[in-house]
Amino acid sequence: MILFVGAGPGDVELITVKGMKALQEADCVIYAGSLVNPKLIDTYCKEDVIIYNSAKMDLDEVIEVMVEMEKDNKKVVRLHTGDPSIYGAIREQMDRLIEHKIEFDVIPGVSSFVAAASRLKEEFTLPDVSQTIIITRLPGRTGHGEGGQLEELAKHRASMAIFLSVQSIGEVMVKLRKSYEARTPVAVVYKATWDDEKIVRGTLEDIEKKVEEASITRFAQILIGDFMSDKYSLSKLYDKGFSHMYRTAVSSEER
Q1: pTM score, whole prediction
Q2: Cα distance between residue 131 and residue 153, in whole Å
Q3: Any alpha helices (H) in 121-158, and if so which ranges?
Q4: CA-CA distance, 242 to 142, in Å (whole number)?
Q5: Does the keyword Phosphoprotein apply (predicted)?
Q6: Structural domains present in the chain
Q7: Could you state, in chain order, the average pLDDT of each consecutive group of 10 residues for the chain (255 residues)?
């Protein structure tokens, strides 16, 4: 059995309990060394665990290790950063395991975009502000399949989390300014929840300069949207005058 495990955003306590137990029982861990906090392995794995850093491996080499470990009845954890379903490149690995008739499962993790929001102490979805979150990135070498360029997605003016793009912060801002107002809040969170985390706040007008001054060129989330401003409506969920299946509204006369 191969377990694909979401390592979480960096803080060793932000892996799920199920993911932690998988690491504790693993005979072999293949981890994304360029992104996963190695303290996870030091904290949770057995002393005799076999470790592979996939940053130095290609797909064939990763699968070869999995196949050999499976032949020896070893428990293998493929440790991915954040949640493996977001920019995790796990589909190609799972398809290869199917070809080899090797069973696998996926344990989700805390994605860096929600970790970034937690460090900013912000809420992506606010009444009368935004009820939609767009997760995207600049195309880069992987291209794009849905036909949605960043400037097209920006037309929705939803809350947005942009992965893997801070190295091109200037290009990102140019594309976003075509739809978002210039004073729209932007935050860049470098290595959210890590010990060396950095947070830079600004607007579409000034965030590029601030990010350059902070020397942030990778490992960062770009968050944009009015969810980081001060104007929003209160939720109906806790409104005294709103009824739902668990509570009856209080009339204006009773208040």
Answers
A1: 0.89
A2: 15
A3: 150-153
A4: 47
A5: no
A6: 2-107 (3.40.1010.10), 112-228 (3.30.950.10)
A7: 97 98 98 93 97 96 98 97 95 98 98 98 95 90 64 93 96 95 97 97 97 97 96 77 63 58
